[in-house]
Amino acid sequence: MRHDVLIVGAGPTGMVLALWLAKMGVSVRIISKASGPGTASRALAVHARTLEFYAQAGLAEAVVTEGFQVGGVNLWVGGERQAHVALDETGARYTRYPFLHIYPQDRHEALLAERLQAAGVTIEWNTTLVGFEETADGVIAHLTLPDGREETAEAAWVAGCDGASSTVRKVLGIGFPGGTYEQTFYVADVEAKGPPMNGELNIDLDSADFLAIFPLDAGARARLIGTVRETDAEAGQMTFEDVNRKAVESLKIEVTKVNWFSHYRVHHRVVDRFRKGRAFLLGDAAHIHSPAGGQGMNTGIGDAVNLAWKLKAVVKGEADARLLDTYEEERIAFARKLVGTTDEVFSLATSDGNLARFVRTRILPVVAPFAARIELLREWVFRTVSQLEIDYRGDFLSEGEAGRVRGGDRLPWLDLGEGRSNYDGFGDFSWHVHVYGYAGHLLEDWCRANGVPLWIFPWQTDFEDAGLARDAVYLVRPDTYVASAAHAASTEALDDYFRIKGLKLPLV
């Protein structure tokens, strides 16, 4: 059987891509060389932007209910808490999810697999991609099945969501430049007592050994993510006792039980290309970096959401194939920026150099308490870490400006009261037009004739605070980014946008 999309890899990135495509009526086949969903809770953090995407697919409520909400972040230097940021206060005007959400990856993957099954897609575990070649209208993939038999599979497109050692990337011959951090990362799930066991995220920047303490509940359990320098003779031999005293002594943490401990080296790399012919790279197959900011899994999910609606449009004949070029354009720029930023921040936090140590131990204790009280700075940090700040300004699909909102921006989220928001209608994965104020009959007729949902929100002064312009027309993409922003309700401009971008009307 020929499928529209063959997805290689069934971690969160691959499963989100499969789920989004299935919900949009695209035929998918998803395989994984793993024996089943992960049993180790590697990635923990689910950021606000990911939860917004999950709300579109009816996933957010389950994730939020099952996980643990972190409402604040603390910065420790010299054994003392130097700064505190309340996330729920900082982010409440930007999103329905103003917190850092802890949801262990093993439970996360199990939920995604369950929802995929309900959508009629069965993950084929213990199935390995050996290689593939491109044809005039698709790809022919060579698979090894669980019983050792070989099979040839056909698909129109292939998506490599198969991790840092991606077979898809190797078959394509795409470079993966970057480097490896000198430090060894360790991860420990512990039960403990002490001041940082407060149900919030705690970060210690005292020494060159970085340590972040992610709560797993309100105070009894936590995950320690830290770094330590190993000699060649010590490589692969580390135990928790080797890092316990140095890593947690200054924070007065008393570890009573270690439930899981692992250590590994981390790379920082971005591929040269996110697409080659009929194949795409997503998630760790395309970019890897320090785990300290909890960005990796969320970035891979963002890749999947960005590509899914574009693949659907091309598969269903709603757009020219050139739409798929915008996946690389939009996501590779962000990946390079993210890897560069996390590398710089992590290097400063872990450097043995005199300047870096002076900044951490002398400058930060003085500056951090004042910086944490600056509202604009707190909000910027929240928007950046939660990935609400990602935009595609200046890219092919992004046009215009109205108010402070430009084409390529994430549509500002608005609390409309009584549990309602302007994001409530995006569950159909379609294009939408938003007007805050008066729309007019011409625009209403155009939207009706072209199958584009029109949302008209009576004007409120709070909308201007969010950057929106009164009576402006915002054309919103299926992933809730603004495609076009214009002050005048010109239906000709909307026609031109769809024609120039290779998108076909009416939408069906």
UniProtKB/TrEMBL annotation:
Key words of the record: FAD, Flavoprotein
Cofactor(s) listed: FAD
GO terms for MF: FAD binding; oxidoreductase activity, acting on paired donors, with incorporation or reduction of molecular oxygen, NAD(P)H as one donor, and incorporation of one atom of oxygen
Domain FAD-binding: 3-339
Pfam families documented for this protein: FAD_binding_3 (PF01494)
UniProt cross-references to InterPro entries, sorted A to Z: FAD-bd, FAD/NAD-bd_sf, RIFMO-like
Name recorded for this polypeptide: 2-polyprenyl-6-methoxyphenol hydroxylase-like FAD-dependent oxidoreductase
Organism: Neorhizobium alkalisoli
Lineage of the organism: Bacteria, Pseudomonadati, Pseudomonadota, Alphaproteobacteria, Hyphomicrobiales
